[in-house]
């Protein structure tokens, strides 16, 4: 996710970060390198120009060049500019209270991830305590209705569909009556998509919009298509009107151009990103956190939140405390390994860890090793997992036998555990004080 962009931007910043004094030439060079990185990331040229001009103007002011810490000041300017280009603050959905039904139209081309994102959004709203339903109004793509039904069962959200239906407005109206009878508070409508934008699709969507009078009109766009995702958003906004965008496949080798150009070119906020194929791989879009990721500062806050979704709140707070106090035990590690499986793609998590974004790929992680770690941890007694210091030579050989590994592997795991505890302590300090994350650069 954004790997190349992160690598290039953080390289450019590293060149000025530690300098006691910086010159206008240093700034020009760093901005030039960032400009190249943005262009390679397929950011719209107009957006790049605006970014470069405003950054240079501010960075060459007295405040930076004369400051005690010019490198950090410069990084702060780049960070703040990125945040502003990404849309400033997180934009929430604007839905009605639970007593009135809210409606969300999901729009987009075929293959953009519209059906998947509809289900992801439903799951998210359900977790927030709403009572969503999914409505199958994509009557063109043959498998869309069935796909939505399968996803609905998987996430435990009702799906309304009418087999053989020809008119999406009628499906909407029938779904709406069903929703009223069944205490539904949010209807998420998966609409028709085609391979390209064409008049019949726009006419149908317009009719559906007039009938449903939605609270949110979200365009689902594929981030892999770069600038063309932005063009599609512009056209949909002109023809139908949008309230926001969901950028999918943010986990894949996306260059980031769409995320950085969208707000400036269309004026519409990015509300969510899809970060994998599973229903839980869906995050609100936080401009400041994404800016942090692009600068290579990682995103500890999202990582902790992701963990909180899997653990319950109390457990998450306890874990946080344990990490701070170095009380993290082997038992916690085993629980974490088990939860990782529930958290979605590993890559999306790696990218949130400071210093790891752009450096490590999911393929580099040895899945067999994760398995053997789980086996070793499971072969320990609860007492051993609570206090690793009691694991002497005879216990080590028993654990090795029980887990089908070797004594050396058990020893390696224990050593690694010690290291991990130290690193966690550092990480939790960083998430409390982002400045210390910057000074790691
Ligand atoms: P639709 O035609 O717009 O309804 O598209 P689908 O929802 O069927 O998605 C098309 C493909 O993209 C499917 O294989 C999805 O699993 C995949 N997909 C959707 N969103 C994401 C995402 O955020 N990340 C990844 N990696 N794949 C996604």
From TrEMBL:
<comment type="subunit">
    <text>Part of the signal recognition particle protein translocation system, which is composed of SRP and FtsY.</text>
</comment>
<feature type="binding site">
    <location>
        <begin position="108"/>
        <end position="115"/>
    </location>
    <ligand>
        <name>GTP</name>
    </ligand>
</feature>
<keyword id="KW-0687">Ribonucleoprotein</keyword>
<dbReference type="GO" id="GO:0003924">
    <property type="term" value="F:GTPase activity"/>
</dbReference>
<keyword id="KW-0547">Nucleotide-binding</keyword>
<keyword id="KW-0378">Hydrolase</keyword>
<dbReference type="InterPro" id="IPR004780">
    <property type="entry name" value="SRP"/>
</dbReference>
<keyword id="KW-0694">RNA-binding</keyword>
<keyword id="KW-0963">Cytoplasm</keyword>
<dbReference type="InterPro" id="IPR042101">
    <property type="entry name" value="SRP54_N_sf"/>
</dbReference>
<feature type="domain" description="SRP54-type proteins GTP-binding">
    <location>
        <begin position="269"/>
        <end position="282"/>
    </location>
</feature>
<dbReference type="GO" id="GO:0008312">
    <property type="term" value="F:7S RNA binding"/>
</dbReference>
<dbReference type="InterPro" id="IPR027417">
    <property type="entry name" value="P-loop_NTPase"/>
</dbReference>
<keyword id="KW-0342">GTP-binding</keyword>
<dbReference type="InterPro" id="IPR022941">
    <property type="entry name" value="SRP54"/>
</dbReference>
<comment type="similarity">
    <text>Belongs to the GTP-binding SRP family. SRP54 subfamily.</text>
</comment>
<dbReference type="InterPro" id="IPR036891">
    <property type="entry name" value="Signal_recog_part_SRP54_M_sf"/>
</dbReference>
<dbReference type="InterPro" id="IPR013822">
    <property type="entry name" value="Signal_recog_particl_SRP54_hlx"/>
</dbReference>
<dbReference type="InterPro" id="IPR004125">
    <property type="entry name" value="Signal_recog_particle_SRP54_M"/>
</dbReference>
<dbReference type="GO" id="GO:0048500">
    <property type="term" value="C:signal recognition particle"/>
</dbReference>
<keyword id="KW-0733">Signal recognition particle</keyword>
<dbReference type="GO" id="GO:0005525">
    <property type="term" value="F:GTP binding"/>
</dbReference>
<dbReference type="InterPro" id="IPR000897">
    <property type="entry name" value="SRP54_GTPase_dom"/>
</dbReference>
<dbReference type="InterPro" id="IPR003593">
    <property type="entry name" value="AAA+_ATPase"/>
</dbReference>
<feature type="binding site">
    <location>
        <begin position="248"/>
        <end position="251"/>
    </location>
    <ligand>
        <name>GTP</name>
    </ligand>
</feature>
<protein>
    <recommendedName>
        <fullName>Signal recognition particle protein</fullName>
        <ecNumber>3.6.5.4</ecNumber>
    </recommendedName>
</protein>
<comment type="function">
    <text>Involved in targeting and insertion of nascent membrane proteins into the cytoplasmic membrane. Binds to the hydrophobic signal sequence of the ribosome-nascent chain (RNC) as it emerges from the ribosomes. The SRP-RNC complex is then targeted to the cytoplasmic membrane where it interacts with the SRP receptor FtsY.</text>
</comment>
<dbReference type="Pfam" id="PF02881">
    <property type="entry name" value="SRP54_N"/>
</dbReference>
<dbReference type="Pfam" id="PF00448">
    <property type="entry name" value="SRP54"/>
</dbReference>
<dbReference type="Pfam" id="PF02978">
    <property type="entry name" value="SRP_SPB"/>
</dbReference>
<dbReference type="GO" id="GO:0006614">
    <property type="term" value="P:SRP-dependent cotranslational protein targeting to membrane"/>
</dbReference>
């Amino acid at each position: 996710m954004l790997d190349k962009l992160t690598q290039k931007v953080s390289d450019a910043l590293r060149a000025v970060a530690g300098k006691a004094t910086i010159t206008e030439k240093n700034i020009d060079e760093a901005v030039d390198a960032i400009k190249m990185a943005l262009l390679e990331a397929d950011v719209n040229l107009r957006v790049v120009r605006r970014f470069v001009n405003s950054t240079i103007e501010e960075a060459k002011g007295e405040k930076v060049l004369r400051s005690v810490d010019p490198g950090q000041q410069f990084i702060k300017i780049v960070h703040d500019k990125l945040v502003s280009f990404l849309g400033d603050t997180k934009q929430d959905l604007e839905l009605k209270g639970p007593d009135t039904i809210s409606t969300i139209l999901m729009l987009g081309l075929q293959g953009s991830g519209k059906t998947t994102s509809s289900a992801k959004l439903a799951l998210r709203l359900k977790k927030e305590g709403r009572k969503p339903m999914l409505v199958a109004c994509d009557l063109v793509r043959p498998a869309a209705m069935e796909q939505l039904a399968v996803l609905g069962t998987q996430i435990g959200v009702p799906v309304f569909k009418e087999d053989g239906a020809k008119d999406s407005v009628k499906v909407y109206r029938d779904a709406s009556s069903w929703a009223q009878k069944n205490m539904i508070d949010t209807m998420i409508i998966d609409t028709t998509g085609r391979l390209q934008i064409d008049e019949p699709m726009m006419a149908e969507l317009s009719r559906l919009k007039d009938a449903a009078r939605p609270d949110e009109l979200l365009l689902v766009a594929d981030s892999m298509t770069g600038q063309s995702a932005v063009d599609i958003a512009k056209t949909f906004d002109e023809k139908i009107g949008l309230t926001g965008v969901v950028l999918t496949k943010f986990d894949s080798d996306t260059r980031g151009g769409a995320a950085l150009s969208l707000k400036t070119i269309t004026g519409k906020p990015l509300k969510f990103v899809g970060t994998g194929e599973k229903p839980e791989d869906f995050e609100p879009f936080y401009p400041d956190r994404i800016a942090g990721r692009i600068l290579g500062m990682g995103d500890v806050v999202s990582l902790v939140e992701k963990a909180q979704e899997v653990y319950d709140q109390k457990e998450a707070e306890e874990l946080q405390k344990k990490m701070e106090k170095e009380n993290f035990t082997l038992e916690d590690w085993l629980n974490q390994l088990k939860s990782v499986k529930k958290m979605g793609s590993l890559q999306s998590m790696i990218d949130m860890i400071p210093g790891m974004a752009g450096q490590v790929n999911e393929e580099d992680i040895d899945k067999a090793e994760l398995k053997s770690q789980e086996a070793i941890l499971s072969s320990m007694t609860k007492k051993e997992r609570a206090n690793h210091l009691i694991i002497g030579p005879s216990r080590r050989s028993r654990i090795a036998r029980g887990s089908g590994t070797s004594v050396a592997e058990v020893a390696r795991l224990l050593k690694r555990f010690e290291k991990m505890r130290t690193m966690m302590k550092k990480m939790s300090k960083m998430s409390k004080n982002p400045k210390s994350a910057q000074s790691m650069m």
